[in-house]
């Protein structure tokens, strides 16, 4: 039995670090484990210009504890009014690694998102030309579509057309939660990939709703039926270069989740690697963890692999009930691995 695993230092290809006091609180957890992270731009107001992106990058760097080697990769937030020139300028200047498509009102901080992808086609065409990846929150917002079906319907109504019409655009289908998404990404050409969160590997919708309503298991896209969890899990551990690590760690202060209208988001950053490796261990494929955590992402983005390493070892990690004002994923549970160095 493998009791210690040393892998190339991983990256997190989807994380919410927030701003202000929350940024100062949470940046350390991501920076301690990951060499780089794709930082989501859904601040209020969102990060839409290269200047805002550069300023946010500086605030993140200031929030990372001294001595940690961490590079935030900044993402532009697309709106109906995004300009191709501004995206290209931000990308040329090395500020924007990618741009994020939030369908308007799909999730936290998406009020300024895109109302119709037809409106941003000139931006997407320019991104394809310059090799700037598009990151997608893949859920429709139509009121007639059940929340558990929103991801699968997005594939039919939006994503298939985008992939067909923009064959040169690199697309990351973020935080996939359904067998339909797994099947779509698997069958799509090599320019389409997906990130997978720890929560969608560990929980199905029962975790949210059985024995009482559990706001800390609520995120978007919402956890689905067990058959979908199993499909996402199979994709993560498959070894396919199309699937890679993206935590979607999304901290919200406890009182904003334990409320009549609680916020969507799971804060998994503090024990992300321990959470993910447990899945690869349970599936008997620890040898595939490095690809998922440290290689498939940079290869897809066209970025160099990291040079350092991290070591995980078998051993108990007790996840606390609180990390500051935030309840972490797995709160109160004991995980079977710990980060050694
Ligand atoms: C995210 C957040 O809180 O910013 N919430 C979530 O449930 N994942 C937004 C998002 O990625 O959908
Ligand atoms: Zn997210």
Please identify, by name, the CATH architecture: Alpha-Beta Barrel
Strand count, sense and closure of the main sheet?
8 strands, parallel
- State the helicity in percent bands: 25-40%
Task: Tell me the quaternary state.
Answer: single chain
The CATH class, by name, is Alpha Beta
Report the end-to-end length measured between terminal Cα atoms. Answer: 20 Å
Shape type: globular
Beta-strand level of the residues, as a percent range? Answer: 15-25%
Radius of gyration: 19 Å
- Tally of individual domains: 1
Strand order of the largest sheet: 2-3-4-5-6-7-8-9
- Name the CATH homologous superfamily: Metal-dependent hydrolases
Order of helices and strands: EEHEHEHEHEHEHEHHHEHHHEE
Number of helices: 12
What's the CATH topology label? TIM Barrel
Bound molecules: N-carbamoyl-L-aspartate, zinc ion
Derived structural class: alpha/beta
> Would you tell me the overall average pLDDT?
97
> How many strands appear in the DSSP assignment?
11
Task: Enumerate the spans where pLDDT stays under 50 for 5 or more consecutive residues.
Answer: none
Walkthrough of the structure:
There is one protein chain. The protein has a single domain, classed as TIM Barrel, CATH 3.20.20.140. The chain contains twelve helices and eleven strands. Strand 2, helix 1 and strand 3 form a beta-alpha-beta unit. It is globular. The chain is of the alpha/beta class. The longest helix is centred in the middle third of the chain and has 16 residues. The strands form two sheets. Strands 2-3-4-5-6-7-8-9 form an eight-stranded parallel β-sheet. Strands 1-10-11 form a three-stranded antiparallel β-sheet. The two termini are 20 Å apart. Helices cover 35% and strands 16% of the residues.
């Amino acid at each position: 039995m493998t009791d210690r695993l040393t892998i190339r230092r991983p990256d997190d290809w989807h994380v919410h670090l927030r701003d202000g006091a929350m940024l100062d609180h949470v940046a350390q957890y991501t920076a301690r484990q990951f060499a780089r992270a794709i930082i989501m731009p859904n601040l209020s107001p969102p990060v839409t210009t290269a200047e805002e992106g550069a300023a946010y990058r500086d605030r993140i760097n200031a929030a990372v504890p001294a001595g940690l080697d961490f590079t935030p990769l900044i993402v532009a937030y697309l709106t109906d009014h995004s300009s191709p020139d501004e995206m290209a300028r931000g990308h040329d200047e090395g500020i924007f690694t990618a741009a994020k498509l939030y369908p308007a009102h799909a999730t936290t901080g998406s009020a300024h998102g895109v109302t119709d992808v037809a409106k941003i086609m000139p931006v997407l065409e320019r991104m394809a030309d310059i090799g700037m990846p598009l990151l997608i929150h893949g859920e429709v917002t139509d009121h007639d579509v059940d929340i558990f079906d929103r991801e699968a319907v997005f594939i039919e109504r939006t994503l298939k057309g985008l992939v067909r019409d923009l064959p040169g655009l690199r697309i990351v289908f973020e935080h996939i939660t359904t067998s339909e998404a797994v099947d779509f990404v698997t069958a799509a050409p090599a320019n389409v990939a997906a990130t997978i969160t720890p929560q969608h590997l560990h929980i199905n919708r029962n975790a949210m709703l059985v024995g009482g309503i559990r706001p800390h298991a609520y995120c978007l896209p919402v956890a689905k039926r067990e058959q979908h969890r199993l499909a996402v899990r199979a994709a993560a551990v498959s070894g396919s270069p199309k699937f890679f690590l993206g935590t979607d760690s999304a901290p919200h202060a406890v009182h904003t989740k334990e409320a009549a209208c609680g916020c969507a988001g799971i804060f998994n950053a503090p024990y992300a690697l321990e959470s993910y490796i447990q899945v690869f261990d349970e599936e008997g494929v620890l040898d595939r963890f490095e690809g998922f955590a440290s290689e498939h992402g940079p290869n897809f983005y066209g970025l160099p692999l990291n040079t350092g390493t991290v070591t995980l070892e078998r051993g108990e990690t007790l996840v606390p009930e609180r990390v500051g004002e935030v309840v972490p994923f797995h709160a109160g549970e004991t995980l079977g691995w710990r980060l050694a160095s």
